[in-house]
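Async update (no meeting this week)

Hi team, since we skipped the sync, here's where things stand on the single-chain job. The sequence we agreed to prioritize is pasted below, unchanged from the tracker. I ran it this morning and attached the output directly underneath so nobody has to dig for it. Comments welcome in thread, and please keep replies under the output.
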Amino acid sequence: MKQASENIVEIKNVSKSFKNVHAVNDISLTVKKGEYLALLGPNGAGKTTLVEMIEGLQHPDSGEILLLNSHWGRHKDFLHRAIGISLQETRFIDKLTVKETLMLFASFYSESSKRVDEIVELTGLQEKTRSYTVNLSGGQRQRLALGIALINKPGILLLDEPTTGLDPASRREIWRILLDLKEREKTTMILTTHYMEEASYLCDKIVIMHKGRILARGKLHELLSGNNSGEIIEFFPDNPEQKPDFSCLPGIRNIEWDEQSGKCKLIINEIVETLPVFMKHTHALGYTLKSLECRKMTLEDLFVEMTGRTFSENE
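Output:
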């Protein structure tokens, strides 16, 4: 099917509600060919609902979704063959081996054993082809699920929190596969995640969602240089109960005290402007620090400043 534009995914003013909950509220975005886009947000942000509408599992209350210049309503068969989906958890037939499982799904798309061999190599499952799926580790199961999603050489890959619950080594292995995939097959991907590092490491563009809306979008450096983002002075005081007034310092934008740990975070305009005055101020007060860190603002810092919530908090 011929494409009318370079946009593989076009989402136009899409909304979806469940009773009184606006899960997705008037969202528009596009994804270009070969682009990796992250939908970033905590539980309840609307990421999964949006992806389910892209997958055709849910229907928008209003708005329009085009995939490969096609609508789910009119081109369902074409789109089922054109997309690959991997969810947080995939259930397999326990007494099928990895190779048999991949051959089964390959048969659905009339793909050959050669494609299965390519997937085995891509996902690093060469030593597990004869293993029953019931005996796979969590990371191996997710690699197999990803392999199944790729078996039909999809034009669009949709991953819904594919590394949730995995240990750091398994998560990194999934990342390696996805970056290799981008290089080999020029795949277009939409990834939902609540891992800031994952979005930063993998994706060309990031969309930050909160309560069904898009708060910010762009490349990582655009998000961190725009949106009035700043820099951070973070420290642990020797006496957590003592909380001097730092609002008098130049360039102060926000002051956050963590009551549980005693840590203080100063969000400022520029470290070079504020740090010398901060050090003089604490010395004059006789205020001692256990540790001090100066750094650029991260995605998580940006999210907290925009929403007033820590990223790990559920809705």
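Quick observations from my side:
The chain has a mean pLDDT of 89.
The radius of gyration is 23 Å.
Reply here if anything looks off.
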